[in-house]
Amino acid sequence: MKLLYNIALTLVIVGALNWLLIGLFDFDLVAAIFGAMSAFSRIIYTLVGISGIISIGLYTRINE
Hints:
With 64 residues, this protein is mainly α. The protein is built from 4 helices and no strands.
């Protein structure tokens, strides 16, 4: 489970950095690397979203 949380947290950080770039510079790094809404970029966005949901479980870990 620890490995899953580490992967999820890493993907959430990647997603957050991508949103930072979009907000500050109107630059979508995922789209720049993999193409705007290509199949692979959609997979990346989906994995980041799932990682966000998994990361909800980290709230219970923080309080232990």
